[in-house]
Amino acid sequence: MAGAKYTYQVLRDTTTDAVIKLTGIFDGASQEANNQRIQANTLYGALDANGVPLRSSSSLSNTALSYYDLQLTGLKYYVNLPTSNTSGQIGTVEVFWNGSGSTPAAQYANSATIFHLNSSGEFGLGEQLPSITNNSGGTNGYPLVTANTGNGDLGVYTSGATANSSYTLIIALRKNNQMYQRGQFNDPAAFNYTPYNLKP
Question: Into how many domains does the chain fold?
Answer without folding.
Answer: 1
